[in-house]
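[SOLVED] Need 3D model of a three-part complex

Original post:
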Amino acid sequence: MRQSIIHWFRFASPQSFYPLAGRLIPWFWAAAALFAIAGLWISFFVAPTDAQQGEGYRIIFVHVPASWMSMFIYMVMAFWAGLGLALNTRVSAMMAQALAPTGALMAALSLWTGALWGKPMWGAWWVWDARLTSELILLFLFLGFMALQAAIDDPRRADKAGAILALVGVVNIPIIYFSVKWWNTLHQGSTINLNKAPSMAQTMLWGMLLMALAFWMYSIAIALVRVRAIILERERHTEWVKHAVE
Amino acid sequence: MQWNSVGEFFAMGGYAFYVWGSFGACALLMIAEPFLAKRRLSEIRKSLIRERIADELEKQQQTP
Amino acid sequence: MSAFLATVKRDLLLALRRKSEVLTAVFFFVIVTSLFPLGIGPEAVLLKKIAPGILWVAALLATLLGLPRLFATDHVDGTLEQMALSPSPLGLLVAGKILAHWLLCGLPLVLLAPILGLQFDLDASALGILTLALLLGTPLLSLIGSIGAALTLGVRGGGVLLALLVLPLYIPALIFGAGAVEAHIAGLDASGHLSLLAAMLALAVFFAPWATTAALRIALE
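Solution:
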């Protein structure tokens, strides 16, 4: 037990995490590609045409994974940031910083694909639905986190300030979600009910799951690439970095 | 398989703009982001290598 | 407790010496709410419908105006560092500063809101609900805002950044605050909105000064 704890803490130092990340990255890219190929195959060639929405429903295969990932990445980012704040481990704060742009990208993709889905299905690019509105606010939270970290010059202070903001965001996300949901039911009770999705065929579920896994692997790979760059940028004056690059 | 021709596949039952707009945006951004991240990594690497070469040259000039 | 009251008194005294800063937020609130009817038109039914939203959004922005100065002047002249080193807990002093900010930037809005509400043809009971909602909501805004103010202390472009960080967190207050008045106008019971607003305020009273203190300690390191 003790041995394994020491073993894991070894990777909490940038020096040992940098090569580890380098070794892992190709595997995650490969996994992302494989899942994406399988997921795209199912989403375009196996999943049947939907009775109500025709071929337009196929947007679900990127929309839902992007929305899931954006929320999941925020949680993971807040976890790493909080860990960095509590244990003062440098790599976890860098991980949080590396995840934020990808999380913002996922939130943006979710909004974009949501708009493109909404237009043919409900006749509007944007509806003030609870989920859409929460996604928009999530994008703002990601952008705020990135802007705060970018505005502070001292990286240690940027890490800690970002961590507090991320944790405040985590406390607020459920409050924001439920308040928006309540606001929504009060204001447009009967216009569009997004919960009444067409009954999902088994193959559709599989396609969505595979695409979500592809997005997941992609996010890990890109975060590891970015965290490697951040490690080198921040540790550039240390001795080990000089030997790490050939 | 529900497609009878390539044209039918790309037409997406009349939803071509919406479906390909969604998948296209995802593909575009998820190719651009790794490209940008890798460029950031290679740039910091290049600058570190330059730094090291400069250090070595400096040492060589001092020794003789 | 005496340290808490001393901080409140000190901040109020300092603000009274520079009245223009306090008055800016109040004037902003008055002018913005008066501009909306000019932009939308004098139709009473429409104005009555949008009044709660306008008054609340104007209140959000008005409290935002005073936030950058919440800690900045004390940070510049070193008072904040002295506070961090003083024997009384920093959290208590921070809570005092937040209370002072609310008394200066929040309370005037609460008192002015019923008068401004008349511009929008709100009746007496709706004005009462509006005032009550603002009374519960504006301290919440000051508390949440103080976290943002502490995080952006001494940071480049702090003012704009503060707005970006804090406004998304203000959304629940806006929804329930404006919702209470809207529900009342629509003939529904507003007590649900108001009690949720009070619950969020109770939560923020406990956690916000704590988070603000943590953020201030980081800024002072």
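Edit: The interface with chain A takes residues 147, 151-152, 155-158, 161, 164-165, 167-169, 171-172, 175-176, 179, 182-183, 196, 200, 207, 211, 214-215, 218-219, 221 of chain C (CB under 8 Å).
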